[in-house]
Design a protein that fits this description.
- Helix 10 packs antiparallel against helix 11 and helix 12 crosses helix 16.
- It contains 16 helices and four strands.
- The strands form two sheets. It has a two-stranded antiparallel sheet. Strands 3-4 form a two-stranded antiparallel sheet.
- The N and C termini lie far apart (67 Å).
- The protein has one domain (86-313): MetI-like (MetI-like fold, Orthogonal Bundle).
- The longest helix is centred in the first third of the chain and has 40 residues, at 25-64.
- 74% of the residues lie in helices and 4% in strands.
- By secondary structure, it is mostly helical.
Length: 315
């Protein structure tokens, strides 16, 4: 009796596994995959719509920058019949802002912004890298306090420190001075310190130990070994911070009132051209300010994406 039951069970199992009587394994897999694909499709659609809301205004502004203001107000949704660069020439050359240091047009403001962005980014990233490396790799008294101080400075709103910072810079003669503005950007505590700290923390100390055995000093270890190893992270942080400096309006308008940057000059241009209803010239000036930072971001997009993970830096 037992043998017959075993044989019957075997026959039933063979029958279930027969090709003609299979229970559609593909359908079972599809039912498991379907919810995941549906969720991914929904997320994709949401992000696609979000990307559209970001790209469409810029594209619309770019196309209208080649039209006259009369054409724009007649039909703001019409495509330009031809690409006329009159608005760009007028915004870049004919617009100017007079200060006690002279008259600045948009091209000169562009040059000031380039100098300030390069200098401020180099100063900030270098000081942040040195500070982050020291706190991450060396044990000394007050190390934890410095790290806590970094977190605290990220919590305090920058507006709350500006009056004291302005009085200090004015007393040192650093206002209306590009060098003073670069020094103000060189603070080593902030998000750059925090990100680079995490990256240096994950670099093996064995490289430094091998260099110490060969007689290398601390500065040589940092600049010749550790900094090149952290170069992808440094480049990512530099690009992101350069965007911040380029777009900064508050600090240059406060500390460099008579040496206008492009962001400050754009505010003057908008005020002047709005009064004249020259909206398309405003669009042209905005595109001029966007082109450099977009070019930098596109050039280093791969580096940023490869080394930035979930809001942090990949070590």
């Amino acid at each position: 009796m037992a043998m017959e039951e075993i044989k019957a069970a075997q026959r039933e199992e063979v029958g279930q596994n027969a090709p003609g009587k299979a229970k559609h394994p593909f359908w079972h897999k599809f039912k498991k995959i379907l919810p995941q694909n549906a969720a991914l499709a929904i997320v994709f659609v949401i992000f696609l719509l979000y990307a559209f809301t970001l790209i469409f205004p810029v594209a619309w502004m770019f196309l209208n920058s080649f039209r006259s203001s009369a054409e724009f107000y007649k039909n703001p949704w019409k495509l330009p019949g031809s690409f006329d660069f009159t608005n760009y020439i007028d915004a870049a050359v004919n617009f100017s802002r007079r200060t006690r240091f002279g008259e600045f047009n948009l091209v000169e403001m562009f040059g000031i912004s380039v100098i300030l962005t390069i200098g401020g980014t180099l100063a900030n990233v270098l000081s942040s890298a040195v500070s982050a490396y020291v706190v991450a790799k060396y044990k000394f008294f007050g190390r934890n306090f410095l790290f806590s101080l970094c977190i605290f400075t990220m919590i305090v709103p920058i507006v709350g420190t500006m009056p004291a910072q302005y009085r200090l810079m004015d007393a040192l003669g650093l206002t209306n001075n590009i060098l003073g503005m670069i020094i103000s950007y060189s603070g080593s505590f902030g998000i750059n310190f925090f990100l680079l700290y995490g990256f240096f923390k994950n670099i093996s100390w064995s490289y430094a130990e091998a260099a110490l055995v060969d007689g290398a000093g601390n500065a040589k270890i940092f600049f010749n070994i550790m900094l090149p190893l952290a170069l992808p992270a440094v480049v990512s942080v530099s690009v992101l911070y350069s965007i911040t400096v380029w777009n900064d309006y508050v600090a240059p308008s406060l500390y460099m009132r008579d040496i206008p940057t492009l962001a400050v000059g754009l505010e003057y241009l908008v005020s002047e051209y709005q009064a004249e209803a020259n909206t398309t010239k405003i669009f042209a000036a905005m595109i001029i300010t966007l082109i450099p930072i977009l070019a930098v971001f596109i050039a280093f997009q791969k580096t940023i994406m490869e080394n930035t993970v979930a809001g942090g830096l990949k070590g």
